[in-house]
């Protein structure tokens, strides 16, 4: 009898090992498990959205998922690339405390396998994407030790970092998670004290500020790669909309400040495939984005198309991937690129053009082409002494605070909050030779007459040749800035356009010409002059 029991135990043991066999190829992905990014410590999207949970199992097996008092059942089916997967859509859960455990049980040929994730919260999940300024870690930002000391006070802001990876085909799951879902601590926000690892300072600060405002758990997924153009983050569908095509570009050799060379992908869609596509089955609240520096000399002309196309394509694909559970117009916030030094980028005028194209040439968002978006202006945050180069300003706190304002209004419906800096409604040329810029900000203008920088300039045309000349501020009021353009008149023509802050580095730190009383800078603009 004892022998028989021993034999049975041995048999069951072998059976369980067999159940959990590890395979290299996707086809034998039979280990019963959650998908890679459903882990302990994660945040699942709260109500009114429904979270989607998925994983792997044996074909046709019954799978039961237990969440609080609720039970969800489904069967394992062949998914994309012939991988057996299961997926359940939960009912909407509000943040009603926690943490929770989520258990999944597979019944297959009389054998039950279980998978468990714990310390789960329901809250808002935000994806943070882009290039090096999004990757820039908490430890590299200003006041790093202060910021890190706050980490333990935010146990419900959870972080995860997707590892650098690329693929020629859309992947269904991550191959490389650099940082699993983690509770914030000095350690989990600094990696192993290596620069450019984790956690993203902007993503963290945005999440922390959002928590202070909402008091609900916030899940932050950081997925970005330094020195990468927008085309790498766009699907073929998005690229097609702008006349761009899938192309297999060789890696770009990026020279770092310390003279080392690092290779970064340039192949269209490569990072979309490996670092975004796998997440499409997870319900999210929205995304923030800090990218554009690389496109200053790479498909710059297409950016006014490629950026809105990528945003809308991400939305379409997330809607599809979560079977309608992620908003089809989910809020998308972004940073209008900051400044840099001429040693990092030539002052050839392309930097301000990218800032403009980030708004689809409107100068502000949201607009017709970029609905439900919000923007943080950052061209007044110059930091030439940044150890990793002026292209990486260390003040990410101001950027996050400006993004938060936009998020409150656009993502959280706070119509009483105006996240915008002053933008003129009209530019009128007076007979005396001045141009009057009229602003309709909800707050008075705060104007400083600048001497050192070409802040406002005017396009004048003589004999068919047009050029920009500096137009000094003659005077200003709460609502107007009056520019002296008499110099232009001497050239025998009327001013055609006024543009503002049209330079690599338009001003010193927080010293541009026009702000409102909330300290929000007027964004760069380009406006036609009425004569
Ligand atoms: C397997 O799980 C199901 C449902 O959770 C349960 O009814 C059944 O008794 C379990 N079987 C075994 C062998 O534990
Ligand atoms: C240069 O910087 C890169 C990125 O920060 C780092 O990986 C590398 O180790 C540095 N090299 C030297 C020689 O300091
Ligand atoms: C994930 O989303 C993709 C794209 O919509 C879809 O093809 C796939 O079936 C989804 N996977 C699961 C497990 O639901
Ligand atoms: C850093 O901390 C100091 C002192 O609290 C504060 O004055 C400063 O604004 C902080 N810097 C940023 C960028 O937040």
UniProtKB/TrEMBL annotation:
InterPro entries named in the record: SASA, SGNH_hydro_sf, SIAE
Keyword Zinc-finger in record: no
Leader sequence residues: 1-18
Pfam families: SASA (PF03629)
GO molecular function, one term: sialate O-acetylesterase activity
Residue span(s) of domain Sialate O-acetylesterase: 124-382
Keywords: Hydrolase, Signal
GO BP term, pick one: carbohydrate metabolic process
Protein name: Sialate O-acetylesterase domain-containing protein
Source organism: Ciona intestinalis (Transparent sea squirt)
